[in-house]
Amino acid sequence: MGLGTGDDAGVYAIDHERALVHTIDVFAPVVDSASDWGAIAAANALSDVYAMGAEPLTALQYLAWPRDDLPLDLASEVIEGGMDVMSDAGCTVLGGHSIGGPEPHYGFAVTGVVKQSSVLANSGGRPGDALVLTKPLGTGIIATAIKRDACPADIESTAIAVMKTLNREAAAAASRVGANAATDVTGFGLLGHLREMCAASGVGAQVVFDQVPLIDGVVDLLADGMWPGGSRRNLLALLGEMRTERDTDQVKLLVDAQTSGGLLLALPQDAVEPYLAEVESAVQVGELTSDKVIEVV
Q1: What is the mean pLDDT of residues 217-243?
Q2: Distance (Å, rounded) from C-alpha 225 to C-alpha 230?
Q3: CA 200 → CA 27, 91, 238, 246, distances in Å?
Q4: Whole-angstrom Cα distance, residue 31 to residue 18?
């Protein structure tokens, strides 16, 4: 499995039963705290492995650092935050690479392992499957507010906690209940990643806006003009491919570019109740349909 269906990671069979899962994620700071940024970068990179139903094994870290502008002690804090999360995930960091650069960037290449029979791809969705989201939306808007010094401290701390949360338990529960398809919600936003799932699965979807979980305060930040460029590009890419009577601001929330977002799962209807009982943060936000159109109601 490679780029063909837009899955979250590449999968390579190493024998008749097992496969390796490979992914890489690197990005610029999204919060002010160096250690929190490092932790979020690690959780974000691990998320692609979890979304494929795999367990992370090893990682290599990458750091670009403006040595003349920022102290190396700050870089150490970034690395410490990332290493703590990797340790919590049971993922061994083997080494990495650092370079000088005009802006700081940090991230990981992660390798995981999975039984071939347990791979969670984005192509297995079926009409009638429930769409379940495991984290609230809004981190792109909040990160923009943080950069503009316009984010209340309580909203920032909530967003940091959401982004640092691993998708490990949510993915394990998805495998146990027999999820048909999975992806994690990151840079393309909820609707962008849903579009990839629908295209790969040959289905459509209906999303119920009022059921979509949002981080408290994000609606007000959007109304104040906190709207990232990546989210703007997502909206332009999707406008001609969905059907909705919702207002533009509501749709903006659904295409907001997320960092270390939750899993978006396609679950058989009989798996929804046991999954929601096991994963407290999970919410059903819609279902897959047979008409190959994404509709927001």
Answers
A1: 93
A2: 14
A3: 26, 30, 16, 26
A4: 37
What tens digit of pLDDT does each residue of 178-187 get? 999 999 999 9
Count CA atoms within 13 Å of residue 119 on its CB side: 22
Q: What is the mean pLDDT of residues 209-236?
A: 95
**Nearby residues of 34 by Cβ (< 8 Å), 6 or more positions away:** 74, 75, 77, 78, 81
Task: Please report the pLDDT score of residue 185 as a whole number.
Answer: 97
* Residue 102 neighbours by CB distance under 10 Å: 9
CB 212 within 8 A of CB 190: yes
- Give the list of residues 6+ apart from residue 86 with CB closer than 8 angstroms, or none: 42, 46, 56, 59, 92, 93, 108
**Cβ neighbourhood burial of 127 (10 Å; 0-12, 13-18, 19+):** middle
Give the burial class of 161: count Cβ atoms within 10 A of its Cβ; 0-12 exposed, 13-18 middle, 19 or more buried: exposed
pLDDT score of 109: 98
Tell me the domains of the chain and their CATH numbers: 10-118 (3.30.1330.10), 130-296 (3.90.650.10)
Using one digit for the tens of pLDDT, what is the confidence trace for 136-166? 999 999 999 999 999 999 999 999 999 999 9
Give the SS3 label for residue 272.
helix
Tokens of 127: 């009409």
